[in-house]
Amino acid sequence: MDRIEVFTVPVNHRGDWLLVRLTTRDGLTGIGDASHGQDARTLAALRGFSLAVKGRELFRLEVLRQAAIRSQPFDRSVACAFSALEQCAWDLRGKALGLPVSELLGGRLRDSLRCYANINRAVVDRSPAGFAAVAEKAVAAGFDAIKLAPWDDMPREGSPEEVERVTALGMDRARAVRDVIGPRRDLLLDAHSHFPLEKGLALARRVEPLKLFWLEEVTPPDPPENLARINREAAMPTAGGESLFGVKGFLPYVTANCVNIAMPDIKYCGGAFELKKIAALCEGAGMRVAPHGPASPIGHVAAAQVCATLPNFLILEYAFGETTWRADLIEPAEELVNGRFTVAARPGWGFALNEHTLASRKRSVIEL
Ligand SMILES: [Mg+2]
User: Fold this and answer.
1) What is 27-60 written as a DSSP string?
2) Which of 31, 53, 78, 251 is the most exposed place for a label (fewest CB within 10 A)?
3) Is 7's pLDDT higher than 70?
4) Residue 305 alpha carbon to ligand 1 centre in Å
């Protein structure tokens, strides 16, 4: 490993993308997504890991993984930094061997992936009509599954009246989106852990008429028993697990049967290999996997290579409408047709950073 660059790319009011690129002495590059941690802390963690990987070949990923896990506690930022470097290493490995990463992870089971449009990060006008307008755009772009997080303004310590007001407003937003997408498309709601157990159980009953594809993270993942109870009692499938790291992080979640659908994120869960391992854990428990990832196009193409190989894959997240230039941040340009993403058959992730777009969009580049 010769060179490690970290690019900060401003996106919108919700934050930046943090992208990592490794370059070998032979000029091969590997790219990874470190977005949506806490950027300053993720950078510090990347700096720490860079000492361990610089000047080394990165084929022995399990050696690096074990050394990394032993080296420090894995909070969100450390997990984000490690996962990004791990993604870079897989991209490099694929390019060095001339194979798509999916071929190195067991081979693909499918050539394209169903994706849902997460409209939440694109909605600025948070009125029901504002959500509906963005959902309508996603449908026009070809998506037949739409996700929103309608309770993001829930106060931490609100009065019962305030909590009810925000809960009802969220219901109005969700109903407005259901109305505009029609009964045949899929609706997914993310509660972002805003509800305690009893209120969460009531919420699950309240959203029943909306005929959800899934209800996501009603309560925090800890203690697992709360989500498990909601999962048992909810009439619709439940999903979650986006913030968990590694097979060890997922084991209690899977064992307690917290959700029907696990949502490891390649940006936090430990990277591509860890995502594959977590999916195997879920497969053993009869759980489907729908990787989380309102990510940059880098995180998306990386997750796609793993998803292509998973027997229990369900659907992949796609951050809809965040920027107008998203597709051109990579080459070839990112393309979804009717909400489906074709799994690249080119080496590595099958994509490179588009230098032209990067030059005009990045705020900074740091060389580690
Ligand atoms: Mg979520």
Assistant:
1) S-EEEEE-TTS-HHHHHHHHHHHHHHHTTS----
2) 251
3) yes
4) 21
